[in-house]
């Protein structure tokens, strides 16, 4: 029996709801397979804890987390804590602390899901987001706070090392896919230093991947291409900020923010990788039991694949597709099903296979 130790951090808002649903599905898969099992450990690192104790992660927390095979994360964000505090103190502390530099975001229209975009069934993208530096390096500061001459800077940091490794990762991924295409997204017309370095390193790395067809697009133009010519793209590599934005667009074009998954990978395996749906804590629907858990299921499939459970990952993806095709959908997709309805349906489907 193979065992997988998974740290579970549901976080805030609908994170709690969708991660609980995802755990049930993972348990159903493990039971069905009989070949592997999960040892889940729940961590109460959330905004409530911050409000009570002044910290999201307790002392020694990252050290404890580093012992797990993977991290299954919900979302962080509360109306009672400034967003830059919650994000930096929890999610970014883990991503950056564990050097999870490759953020991988597949986008595809699942069967039965209605996209408002004509031709959306041709969407089959993986967005690779640089996840360790760039615009989210945290480099900057504020002076003369509260005075009329106040200044705030937010300085993007791009390093050759950081760029080489993310481009290499994106090329390897593109090479492993049937279409073998990679689109470089940047803004190197207006931003003439770091962004130009992005481009240069991309073309240097490209030399080692002659089978991959490459092209480049400025980030503003790529938003129109995603809408007007979705079939022309396969893998897309972009900076921390740019990929953050275009992956929400990709999720909406594929039907809803509620279905999109993410893996925050430390490809060398020096630290555990973290798996999370791309959405946030969704203040508007939290606590109502109506969040779409499909993003956390698809995320769980990515985690299974990472843990070496390829068959279970395929089995889960197939179950997700049967679920969406069945028309049982939550309100974000135009249906009336609850989180629990959808979770029960997929668990019984897995059991009955
Ligand atoms: P959000 O993703 O929480 O919500 C945006 C919209 O999408 C809302 O209308 C929400 O109801 C809907 N939505 C999102 N996930 C859904 C699901 N599974 N089912 C149905 N509808 C869904 O983004 P927002 O409103 O910008 O951020 C809310 C909080 O979450 C903020 O504190 C923000 O900082 C945080 N956040 C955290 C992230 C993380 O932990 N990875 C990612 C994005 C935001
Ligand atoms: Mg985002």
**Main β sheet profile:** 10 strands, mixed
Uncertain residue ranges: none
Q: Over all CA atoms, what is the radius of gyration?
A: 20 Å
Which architecture of the largest domain per CATH? 3-Layer(aba) Sandwich
Trace the largest sheet across and list its strands. 2-1-3-12-11-4-5-10-8-9
What is the CA-CA span between the terminal residues?
A: 21 Å
- So how many helices? 11
Helical content band: 40-55%
> What is the mean predicted local confidence, pLDDT?
97
Q: What is the β-strand count?
A: 12
- Which series of helices and strands comes N to C? EHEHHEHEEEEHEHEHEHEEHHH
Beta content comes to 15-25%
Bound molecules: 1,4-dihydronicotinamide adenine dinucleotide, magnesium ion
In the CATH hierarchy, what is the superfamily of the largest domain? Answer: Isopropylmalate Dehydrogenase
- Helix and strand content put the structural class at alpha/beta
How many domain units? 2
CATH C-level class of the largest domain is Alpha Beta
Cofactor: Mg(2+); Mn(2+)
Domain Isopropylmalate dehydrogenase-like: 5-346
EC number: 1.1.1.83
Protein name: D-malate dehydrogenase (decarboxylating)
């Amino acid at each position: 029996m193979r065992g997988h130790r998974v740290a579970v951090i549901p976080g805030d808002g609908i994170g709690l709801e969708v991660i609980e649903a995802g755990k049930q599905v993972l348990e159903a898969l493990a039971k069905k397979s009989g070949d592997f099992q999960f040892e889940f450990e729940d961590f109460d690192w959330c905004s409530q804890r911050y409000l009570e104790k002044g910290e999201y992660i307790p002392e020694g927390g990252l050290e404890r987390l580093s012992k797990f095979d993977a991290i299954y994360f919900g979302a962080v964000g509360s109306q009672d804590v400034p967003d830059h505090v919650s994000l930096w103190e929890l999610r970014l502390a883990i991503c950056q602390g564990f050097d999870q530099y490759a953020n991988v975001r597949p986008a595809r229209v699942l069967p039965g899901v209605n996209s408002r975009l004509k031709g959306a069934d041709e969407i089959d993208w993986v967005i690779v987001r640089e996840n360790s530096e760039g615009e989210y390096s945290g480099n900057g500061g504020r002076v003369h706070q509260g005075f009329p001459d106040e200044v705030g800077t937010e300085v993007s940091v791009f390093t050759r090392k950081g760029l080489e490794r993310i481009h290499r990762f994106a090329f390897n991924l593109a090479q492993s896919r049937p279409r073998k295409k990679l689109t470089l997204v940047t803004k190197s017309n207006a931003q003439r230093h770091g962004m130009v370095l992005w481009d240069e390193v991309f073309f240097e790395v490209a030399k080692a991947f002659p089978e991959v067809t490459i092209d480049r697009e400025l980030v503003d133009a790529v938003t129109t291409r995603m809408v007007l010519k979705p079939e022309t793209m396969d893998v897309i590599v972009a900076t921390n900020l740019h990929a953050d934005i275009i992956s929400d667009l990709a999720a909406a074009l594929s039907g809803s923010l509620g279905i999109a998954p993410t893996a925050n990978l430390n490809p060398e395996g020096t630290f555990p990788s973290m798996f999370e749906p791309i959405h946030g804590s969704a203040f508007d629907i939290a606590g109502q039991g109506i969040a779409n858990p499909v993003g956390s299921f698809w995320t769980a499939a990515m985690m299974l694949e990472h843990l070496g459970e390829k068959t279970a990952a395929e089995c889960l993806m197939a179950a997700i597709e049967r679920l969406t095709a069945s028309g049982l959908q939550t309100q974000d997709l135009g249906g009336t099903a609850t989180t629990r309805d959808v979770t029960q349906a997929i668990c019984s489907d897995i059991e009955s296979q």
